[in-house]
Design brief:
Layout (H helix, E strand, L loop, with lengths): L3 E6 L3 H10 L6 E4 L16 E2 L10 H20 L3 E2 L3 E5 L5 H13 L6 E4 H7 L7 E5 L3 E3 L1 H14 L3 E3 L2 E9 L2 E8 L4 E11 L5 H7 L7 E10 L10 E4 L11 E4 L5 E4 L3 E3 L10 H10 L11 E11 L11 E6 L2 E5 L5 H16 L6
Parallel strand pairs: 1-2, 1-12, 2-9, 5-14, 12-20
Antiparallel strand pairs: 3-8, 4-8, 5-7, 6-7, 10-11, 11-12, 13-16, 13-17, 13-18, 15-16, 19-20
Helix pairs in contact: 1-5, 1-8, 2-8
This protein binds flavin-adenine dinucleotide.
Amino acid sequence: MESADITIIGAGVIGLAVAAEIARPDRNIFILEKNPTHGSGISSRNSEVIHGGIYYPQDSLKAALCVEGRHRLYEIAEKNKILYKRIGKLIVAAKTSETEELEYLHENARKNGVNSTELLSAREVARMEPNIKACSALYSPETGIISAHDLMNYFLLRARQNKAELINYTKVTGIEKEGRSYRIFTQNGKGDTFDFSSACVINAAGLESDTIAGLVGGSYRLHYCKGDYCSISHVKPGTVNRLIYPAPAKKQVGLGVHLTIDLSGRLKLGPDATYISRAEDYTVEDRKASLFYSRTKAFLPFLKEENVSPDMAGIRPKLQGIGDDFQDFVIREDWPGFINLVGIESPGLTASPAIARLVNKMLTGKHSD
Ligand SMILES: Cc1cc2nc3c(=O)[nH]c(=O)nc-3n(C[C@H](O)[C@H](O)[C@H](O)COP(=O)(O)OP(=O)(O)OC[C@H]3O[C@@H](n4cnc5c(N)ncnc54)[C@H](O)[C@@H]3O)c2cc1C
C-alpha cells in the first residue's frame, strides 16, 4: 500500500455509500475494514426499513438526510434490481389518549417535507389491516424495506468500478497528523502492522467512530444502545401486510417495540432499547419473548405468546445518553481533510446515499478536484 488520496475507515453501509459516491479512476481510495468482510457491523443487524422521515425534528440532519436518502434509495433499488418493497407502515394508537401523538407526528412529517402521511380512523385501519387493533393510526405509504446486503454489495461494486480498493482484516490502530496529510497505522488479522500516508480521512467506523476520532484528539463519546428482536412463527402469510409501530411514548429511546416484515415475509418484533456498557453482547435473553408479547398484544391481537422466540440483536451508536435530549448525526470536518461521521444510528441505512452526497460536497475542492 503506497499513499492514499482518501482513506475511508469502516466498510459498513456508510463507508461503502461514501466510497461509491466519491470514487474516481484518478483517485487512490482505500476502504479499511477490521472484519474479514464488509457489512458485518451495525449494517447487518437492523430492521432494513426505509424510513419515511416522520419522527425527527425539523431542520435536523436526521430529518433532511432521511427524506433525501429515501428518495435516492428507491431510485437506486429500482434501477439496480436491489430487493425492496414499498410496503407502507401504520403507527397505531392502541388507546384514544395516544391519538394526540399521531397528530403531532402527522404535523412533524409535513415540517420535514413528508406530505404523504394520512391519519386513519379505526374503521379505515380495519379495512387496511383487518387483524390489527387500533383506535386510529398514522399511515406512511412511503415507508418500505430493503435488502441491506444487496445495497452494500451495490455500493461496493460501484466503488470498485471506479478503482476504490476494499482492504479487509485491517484495523486502524493509530492516526497522526503529518504536515497536510495523516499517517494511518494499521494491523492485520495476523498481527502484522503497516502504516501509510493519506491526504484525506473519512471516519465511518460505526460503533468505534468515537475511538477513531479520539486518535486525532476528538472527544466524542458514544453510548451503546442494544436493540433485541424476537421472531414470530405460525402466523398465516398475509395476516399483516404493513409494518406496524406503536405510538411513541414521550422521551422514548427508539421507536417502541414494533412489528417488522422482512423481504421473505417473515415477521419479527423489536427492537427495544437498552443501554449497555460494552458494544459486544448480541445475546437475546429468553425473557424478551414474553416481554415483547405483552408490549404488542394490545395492537397485534393475533399473536400467541408461544409463537414468539428470541432472535437477533443490534447495537446503536448513540450520542444521546440516558435521559438526554435528541442528538443529531455528526458529519463534520473536524480537522482539515478529516471528516468524522459519529452517532450514525437510525435512520442511517435510509440516509446512506444522502450522507454520501454530503460528504462528497465537503470534499469538493480538497483533493484533485
Ligand atoms: C437495532 C437497529 C435497528 C436499525 N434499524 C434501521 C432501519 O430500519 N432503517 C435505517 O435506516 N437504519 C436503521 N438502523 C441504523 C443503521 O443500521 C445504521 O445507521 C447503519 O448501519 C450504520 O452504518 P455504519 O456504516 O456507520 O456502521 P457499521 O455497519 O457498523 O460499519 C462500520 C464498520 O467500521 C468497522 N470498523 C470499526 N472500527 C474499525 C477500525 N479501527 N479499523 C477498521 N475498521 C473498523 C466495523 O468493523 C464496521 O464494519 C438500525 C440500527 C440498529 C442498531
